[in-house]
């Protein structure tokens, strides 16, 4: 594996819209942490996600706070505001630039699910992404994990326990008054109820 140096901090980066964060995200981060011996995994809620400009996305502060609640009990998990504090659309290349500036001594591991992996080559400055981080591509139910066309020395595949959970489904359940217990952490269930999130969306 290139870009990885013994003795340097190993930092995972889990980017996502987290609208809301769910146990699929947490298991992906936990598995990557263990498999790659990461000192820390930084969850980075997006500002405006590029691929969701046509959708209603919950205000960043709610998504950020739910991510804080969900990760609070894990001493290796932290949450960064770099994407929500940058104006405009979020591009992963900017996320990685900002985190590298904050952690110049660290090796970064960008964790991404099978559905997102398929799109990496369409992301802004795709070539540069692989110079800035090692990519960890995790399995996700309903999506074939293919890394065809990606530099194989910069991408690792990781099979993780299959959790067929998506934020889209959690939002639909909340809207329909169906339970979201055990799909998201208890504190996130309570946060959604307290702020009546996902009630008014079509
Ligand atoms: P939405 O349905 O709104 O797109 P989502 O569940 O896909 O939400 P995102 O915030 O879009 O969640 O995903 C953030 C990252 O987590 C992506 O890399 C995605 O592939 C990965 N991911 C999301 N859910 C799972 C899951 N159940 N198993 C593995 N990876 C997941
Ligand atoms: Mg998604």
Q: Care to describe what's here?
A:
The protein has helices at about 25-35, 60-70, 80-85, 90-100, 115, 125-130, 165-175, 185-195, and strands at about 10-15, 40-45, 50, 75-80, 90, 105-115, 135-140, 155-160. It has about 200 residues and is an alpha/beta fold. It has one domain (about 10-195): Rossmann fold (3-Layer(aba) Sandwich), CATH 3.40.50. β1, α1 (about 25-35) and β2 form a beta-alpha-beta unit. It starts with 9 loop residues before the first strand and ends in an 8-residue tail after the last helix. The model has no long low-confidence stretch (mean pLDDT about 95). It binds adenosine-5'-triphosphate and magnesium ion. Adenosine-5'-triphosphate binds near residues 19, 24, 25, 112 and 115. It comes from Cellulomonas soli.
């Amino acid at each position: 594996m290139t870009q990885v140096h013994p003795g340097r901090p190993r930092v995972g980066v889990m980017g996502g819209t987290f609208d809301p964060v769910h146990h699929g995200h947490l298991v992906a981060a936990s598995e990557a942490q263990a498999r790659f011996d990461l000192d820390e995994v930084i969850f980075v809620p997006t500002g405006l996600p590029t691929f969701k400009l046509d959708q209603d996305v919950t205000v960043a502060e709610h998504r950020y706070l739910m991510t804080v609640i969900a990760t609070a009990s894990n001493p290796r998990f932290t949450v960064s505001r770099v994407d929500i504090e940058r104006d405009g659309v979020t591009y992963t290349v900017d996320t990685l630039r900002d985190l590298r500036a904050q952690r110049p001594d660290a090796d970064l591991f960008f964790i991404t699910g099978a559905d997102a992996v398929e799109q990496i080559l369409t992301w802004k400055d795709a070539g540069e992404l692989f110079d800035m981080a090692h990519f960890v591509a995790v399995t996700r139910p309903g999506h074939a994990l293919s890394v065809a066309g990606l530099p194989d020395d910069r991408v690792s595949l990781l099979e993780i326990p299959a959790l067929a959970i998506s934020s889209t489904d959690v939002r639909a359940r909340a809207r329909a008054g169906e339970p979201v217990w055990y799909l998201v952490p208890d504190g996130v269930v309570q946060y959604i109820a307290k702020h009546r999130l996902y009630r008014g969306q079509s």
